[in-house]
Amino acid sequence: MTKDTFNDRMVKKTVIPAIYLWLLASGAVVGMGILYPDVVLANLDGFIALIAIIGGVAAPALQTVLRMWESEQQIEMTTSTPNKNTAESDTPHSTNTKWNLRARISNTGKLSRSTMSA
């Protein structure tokens, strides 16, 4: 188990609560707008300022979190996709050279040197 760094503690104590507060405030404004539209319209400038002030910190932090999640997903996808060569060797027709050659040509649209040597 690794020890939390100063940056880890700062993110846990400031950034994550700011993101949740921003989402909560935005949801509250939308909910109040549905239930009490007159109140929201009368105080619209205040609600916009509240969401903008909290969003000034939360929006870039949320973008960073989403970018990190996206890179994790891409790494998972590249490590979990089966190797094309092993997938071809597992086919029931893997001993049929003509079938393999046709499959490789139809997948790529052209015949490469590596396909001809296989």
Helix content: over 70%
General shape: elongated
Give a quick account of the main beta sheet: strands, pairing sense, barrel closure: none
Poorly predicted ranges (pLDDT <50, ≥5 residues)?
Answer: 111-118
Distance between the termini: 48 Å
What is the number of E strands? Answer: 0
User: Whole-number average pLDDT?
Assistant: 76
Structural class: mainly alpha
- Rg, rounded, reads 27 Å
Could you write a compact summary of the structure shown?
The protein has helices spanning 6-35, 37-42, 44-80, 84-89, 97-108, 113-117. It is mainly α.
List the helices and strands and how they pair.
Blueprint lengths: L5 H30 L1 H6 L1 H37 L3 H6 L7 H12 L4 H5 L1
Any overview of this molecule?
This protein is mainly α and 118 residues long. The protein has two domains: 1-81, no CATH class; 83-118, no CATH class. Helix content is 81%, strand content 0%. It has six helices and no strands. The protein has helices at 6-35, 37-42, 44-80, 84-89, 97-108, 113-117. The longest helix is centred in the middle third of the chain and has 37 residues, at 44-80. The radius of gyration is 27 Å and the shape is elongated.
Features:
about 80% helix; elongated; about 120 residues; 2 domains; 6 helices; about 0% strand; mainly alpha
